[in-house]
């Protein structure tokens, strides 16, 4: 019972650290974090599109971040390292954030989603699914949901845990829109499925031209 309680507390702490880093490092193109507990240290691996902004001049930013994590979360001897995100189109958080910002700029929801999905598949994903739900049309229109997918996306059992997932909410002038992005990364081993057929995108998605905001991907100065 004590072990179970400690497990829950550690997971809750890890979630709070993730939320904290997400807010602190948004301008650095934060994507995700991995936390590894050892008897001596807590290793915190931050993935971002702009590692330089995480580290700061002469390491000032990362040192400040380390001290904040010690103080705010009671983590003894945290060690933060930074990894650069090589392919932002395969990072659900970055893709979702870009979609949210495009929707808040008033861009057409369906075209934005088609374009994002095409870019994910072109980056080599085995499968992807993007869902947007809420006030997708003009003022006075009913809320509705759009779900667009391509490739392989497991829905049940253990394989359903394989895709990376991120969710955000856009707040355009007509009302909130929830956006969820699921990506099955290249090289993912799927039990019971030896081969995945090449992905053929529908013409409407393949030829989508909507420009999606890249602010989350690049980070801003």
Supply the key terms.
221 residues, alpha+beta, Ribosomal protein S3 C-terminal domain, 2 domains, three-stranded mixed beta sheet, 7 strands, 35% helix
Notes on the protein architecture:
This protein is α+β, with helices and mostly antiparallel strands and 221 residues long. The chain folds into two domains: 2-84, GMP Synthetase, Chain A, domain 3; 88-212, Ribosomal protein S3, C-terminal domain (Ribosomal protein S3 C-terminal domain). Helices cover 35% and strands 24% of the residues. The protein is built from seven helices and seven strands, in the order H-E-E-H-H-E-H-H-E-E-E-E-H-H. The protein has helices at residues 2-24, 51-55, 60-73, 92-104, 109-122, 203-206, 215-218; strands at 30-37, 42-48, 78-84, 127-134, 144-151, 164-170, 177-184. The strands form two sheets. A four-stranded antiparallel β-sheet has the order 5-4-7-6, covered by helices on one side. It has a three-stranded mixed β-sheet with strand order 1-2-3. Strand 1 and strand 2 (42-48) form a beta hairpin. Helix 4 packs antiparallel against helix 5 (109-122). The mean pLDDT is 87.
Q: How far apart are the termini?
A: 48 Å
Low-confidence stretches: none
Q: CATH fold name of the largest domain, please? A: Ribosomal protein S3 C-terminal domain
Q: From the alpha-carbon coordinates, what is the Rg to the nearest angstrom?
A: 19 Å
Give the SSE order as H and E letters. Answer: HEEHHEHHEEEEHH
Tally of helical segments: 7
Q: In order across it, which strands form the biggest sheet? A: 5-4-7-6
CATH superfamily of the largest domain: Ribosomal protein S3, C-terminal domain
Structural class call reads alpha+beta
Query: Class of the largest domain in CATH?
Result: Alpha Beta
What's the helical proportion of residues? 25-40%
Number of domains: 2
The CATH architecture of the largest domain can be given as 2-Layer Sandwich
What is the residue-averaged pLDDT? 87
Estimate the strand proportion: 15-25%
